[in-house]
Amino acid sequence: MRLLTFGLLGLALALAPCHRAVAQEWPDRPVTMIVPFPAGAAVDTLARAVANMLSENFGKQFIVENRAGAGGNLGGASVAKATADGYTWLFGTPAPIALNKFMYKGLAYDSERDFTPVVLVAKSPMIIAATSDFPAKTLPDLIAYAKQNPGKVNVGVPGNGTLGHITSALIQQFAGVDMTHVPYRGSAPLITDLLGGQVNVAMDFMPTYLPLVAGGKIRALAVTTSQRVAQLPDVPTVQEAGFKGFEATAWYAIVAPTGTPPEIVSKMNNAVNAFLESDKGKSVLAQNALQGVGGSPEDLKAFVAGELAKWGPVIAAAKITM
Which family does it belong to (predicted)? Predict the structure, then answer.
């Protein structure tokens, strides 16, 4: 037993320097960052800005790869099953990182078990927007119109089970209205159909819609934060429309496959935090109407736990299943 104990101790001591050496050498080849939604979405824009910074910082290429589908689950599953060596990361949103486990039966991965938290990058309000010629000019107008025309208002969301979908379901539930749910594979195709009039209303992450609102191509009916946002100071919140206590905030985070060496996770965390504090990072956030967050992996773990506790009962009450 004594020999076995010494043998195991020796093995552990031998492996420890090896792990440290691997972490010190990382990255020594291109790194893949999976975005589980199509190119052009708000999460994709931010991911590419972060990837460019990481490429400059580490001297190796960080490649953004879009793997859209199933509300982010295709990209999420690919990262959950990837080798935990620091060369595959998920740059995701609430759906694949947290909330999909409440909605999808037979999900190919468990976000709490299969992901290691890295860093909470940024937060963003959700926007409720309508075509410029839609009869409703405000959220109360939309609700009144939907009550008069049950099932005839088409509401586009960037995917089944996304925060846009949950927000839409919750508003309909609270207001007692019935609107037709139209899921898309990301924000880009949704915006195309909104501009073309194929859908009347969109509930989605705000940043991508700001230029369209400013150009008068679409109309912002409400934002989902508890307070009005600086980029749309004249647009009321959902709470102001009569939904007391309502808040739904989009967020963007980086996670890795469980088992990724903590030294590598720490390197990535430190680099992203430095980006968020830099002038360039602040400029990117401001351009995209995002609030930088940052913090430690433990901060992200606690934040995700809070989101699960907050939205789990809402999803169950709305009976959102995939």
Answer: Belongs to the UPF0065 (bug) family.
- What is the tens place of the pLDDT at every residue in 74-92? 999 999 999 999 999 999 9
Cβ atoms of residues 201 and 142 within 8 Å: yes
59: left (phi over 0), alpha (psi -120 to 50) or beta: left
Q: Are residues 116 and 130 in the same domain?
A: no
Joined together, the tokens standing for residue 226 give 């508890």
Tell me the per-residue pLDDT of 184-205, one tens digit each, with 9 for 90 and over: 988 999 999 999 999 999 999 8
Its pTM stands at 0.81
In a domain, 3, yes or no: no
92 touches 33 (CB < 8 A)? no
What does the alpha-carbon distance between residue 251 and residue 315 come to, in Å, rounded to a whole number? 18
Same domain, 284 and 144: no
Q: Residues near 63 by Cβ (< 8 Å), separated by ≥ 6? A: 30, 31, 32, 33, 51
Which string of b and e fits 171-184 if b means at least 16 CB within 10 Å? bbeebebebebbbb
Cβ burial of 266 (10 Å; 0-12, 13-18, 19+) is middle
Runs of H (alpha helix) within the chain: 2-25, 42-58, 73-80, 94-97, 111-114, 139-148, 163-175, 187-196, 210-214, 262-277, 279-287, 297-318
- In sequence order, the β-bridge partners of residue 144 are none
